[in-house]
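Morning run. Coffee first, then this:
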Amino acid sequence: MKIRVLSRKEIAAALDMPTAIAAMREAFRSLSDGTAHAPTRLSMDTPGGVALFMPGRVGNERVAAKLVSVNLDNPERYGLPAIHAAIAVFDPRTGALKALLEGEWLTALRTGAGGGLAADLMACPQAGTVALFGAGVQARTQLDAVRCVREVREVRVFTLDDTGRTLAREIEASDSGLEARAARTPEEALAGADLVIAATTSPTPVFDGSLVEDGAHVTGIGSFTPEMAEVDATLVARARIVVDQRAGAMAEAGDILQPLAAGVIDESAVVGELGDVVAGRVPGRTRPDEITFFKSVGNAVQDVAVAHLALVQAEEAGLGTVLSL
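And here it is:
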């Protein structure tokens, strides 16, 4: 059996953010239409964190599975990323393993692309000031994706350590033309922001939802268990809520499950899935002053879509290493 192995660098060379956003548009439409399948992911506690298994299928032509470990103490204790992942791509006809892709970058890319797609469909057309909570790879790809769909002019980064200041300096030093600064408080980050991105590992809310401006669009991608909620119940109660996948959100999204349990909202507050918005069945926004909230816990259909596309384009470009097993 021969398989193609793709590194982070090779994936980045094969697949850019605009292409990934286009792939997410198709993937989420397929998920909501029922032509794609993503079972609720299997999770297992490990001594240092949690391990996840995420298989998925898009149509009859694309099948893949992702293995992920999330160890939140890694950066501080070991100087390693909090997330390690690999994606296996299979031939849908024979079941043979076709490729193995580095999954950390692909996960960040597809998560960012999903957030970018949501912003394109839900944010006000003139939105251009970003409050960015977090400064890791997920925060960076969310910002990259939003810049693909809106004319972002200013970024305020808030973190509890110096990483926010470092990211702001990197943005300022780049040729992006963006004005960037590290916010001293969440309030400073949110003042006047019409695009709010929460991409942290915090188990508790990172800002006061009452401070979010009317008309803002909020993306939350950091919380992925019922016990975690980086966005508070106040924001959730104020917002029009769209999720990546209803089944996954109702099983894992603490940002939604906790307000539900407290009686702050009911299930009707979640107006639909992102695929419903793509298909035009549900509007992403109903008025200019409405706060919109896209909550994503991630699903395997996203991984399948970008992994397959990266593999096709890598094969065409001759990228990767072919191994015989």
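The mean pLDDT is 95. Good start to the day.
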